[in-house]
Amino acid sequence: MPEHHTILGGKVHVYKRPNSSLWQCSSFFAGKNRRTSTKEESLSKAKEIAEDWYLRLRGKLRDGEIKSEKTFREVSEHYLREYDIMTQGQRNKRYVDGLLHGSCREMLIDERVQKQH
After folding, report:
1. pLDDT per residue over 32-41, tens digit each?
2. CA dihedral angle for residue 85, residue 89, residue 94, residue 95, rounded to 10 degrees
3. 3 state SS of 21
4. CA distance 25 to 35
């Protein structure tokens, strides 16, 4: 069974992958699973590096370097996958496709809503 430890109250997982001597760390943070290698063989050093990594992630989120919102592209692609079920053939798909392929696709949903108000 692979070795697995948690730190910071379970917010960060430190583990080894099969056939690797190096420790990895992961966390579900700002809506996404994030992972990195600690590049350490020592568990105690790996835990220190994992804690620093997590605290840097928190700083980046606070400073706006990590966006936790979905982009318009992500939402529109999800909508297109669900389109036929939602409309039951009552809308022309080319019309909707045209709306979703404008220059605002990469804009974050939060930012787009704020600009409208």
Report:
1. 889 999 999 9
2. -100
3. coil
4. 6
